[in-house]
Write a structure and sequence with these properties.
Length: 336
């Protein structure tokens, strides 16, 4: 899918989806870390065919995979986020819709997908509140506040390609204010824990924090009443040389100690990667770039193909490791 997407997309667009900050060490590390983790299977356990259903925030879904938030899907395919949402709905997984979507959130939720809304807190808190209320009215089931972006990362591929704005006809549709004017996405270096408390107090939706990588921040997140944390280094697109998220995951899981779900994204490319993350304590994994590759190759069908490939690989990997569900996995199956 990656190679087919490379062939079909404008090189600058492919680089936008594929690239990261500075020298892209973290981008590569996310994938390479999974390859370094070995699996030590158990045998003769008579577990039968594995089942991969799981639960997130009180709702069932078909497997421990969510579609991670990524921007500008209409750069990959004309149907954009609507195609992604339809595929997610058929696959029975959560779609975390990006604030930087090229399709309005109302059109995304109309597909029937289980949608969470990813939010960048804006310096104009009144406008942030407007966006949150819009996500609530649209039927989103959770808010995902990105907390690793006080400033914009240095993405050198985009600078070399002159990729600084969307082409004519595409806009960040979730950035429209009450008068219909589209605002630029801002970043707030002043964002702090009191802002998390304020956001929780002003929304009826469960709030997750995306971008937690330090166990002390995970403890603080729980103390501030969040519904979940997502271990994420922004796919390597913000701060380069942050370690791979799967390497940081165990310490965050220990810090949270089962009090809220812990999700992880970054570098998931195979069902064995999903298995490894679950064995290390993740409730679910987020998948970003592979979804964009599938979307670029064959729209809705391409996204569904990516998700179903992950499902089939996870079921096979569980059977080969001697486990019947992802929840039954323990670190015993892992060798670093």
């Amino acid at each position: 899918m990656r190679e087919l997407a490379r062939q079909r997309l404008d090189p600058a667009v492919f680089d936008f989806f594929e690239g990261g900050a500075d020298d892209e060490h973290t981008v590569r590390a996310n994938e390479e870390a999974y390859a370094r983790i070995g699996l030590v299977p158990r045998v003769l356990r008579a577990g039968g065919t594995p089942t991969v259903h799981t639960g997130l925030l009180g709702r069932g879904q078909s497997m421990p995979v969510v579609v991670a938030p990524t921007a500008f899907h209409r750069l990959a395919h004309p149907d954009g986020e609507v195609a992604t949402a339809r595929a997610a709905a058929r696959a029975g997984v959560v779609l975390i819709a990006s604030m930087a979507a090229t399709t309005p959130i109302e059109s995304v939720t109309e597909t029937g997908a289980d949608v969470w809304f990813q939010l960048y807190a804006q310096p104009d808190r009144e406008f942030t509140g407007h966006v949150v209320r819009r996500a609530e009215r649209a039927g989103c089931r959770a808010l995902v506040l990105t907390v690793d972006s006080p400033v914009f990362g240095n993405r050198e591929r985009d600078l070399r390609n002159g990729f600084t704005d969307l082409p004519d006809g595409l806009r960040c549709e979730n950035m429209r204010d009450a008068d219909g004017v589209i605002r630029p996405i801002g970043f707030d270096p002043g964002l702090s824990w009191p802002d998390v408390d304020e956001l929780r107090a002003t929304t009826r939706l469960p709030l997750l924090l995306k971008g937690i990588v330090h166990p002390d921040d995970a403890v603080l997140a729980v103390e501030h009443g969040v519904a979940g944390v997502i271990v994420s280094n922004h796919g390597g697109r913000q701060l380069d040389t942050v370690p791979a998220t799967v390497e940081l995951l165990p310490a965050v899981v220990r810090a949270v100690d089962g009090r809220v779900p812990v999700l992880v994204d970054g570098g998931v490319r195979r069902g064995t990667d999903v298995l490894k993350a679950c064995a290390l304590g993740a409730t679910a994994v987020g998948v970003g770039r592979p979804v964009l590759w599938g979307l670029a190759v064959d729209g809705e069908k391409g996204v569904e193909q990516v998700l179903e490939a992950l499902r089939a690989e996870l079921v096979r990997a569980l059977a080969l490791c001697g486990y019947d569900t992802p929840a039954a996995l323990t670190e015993d199956v892992i060798r670093w």
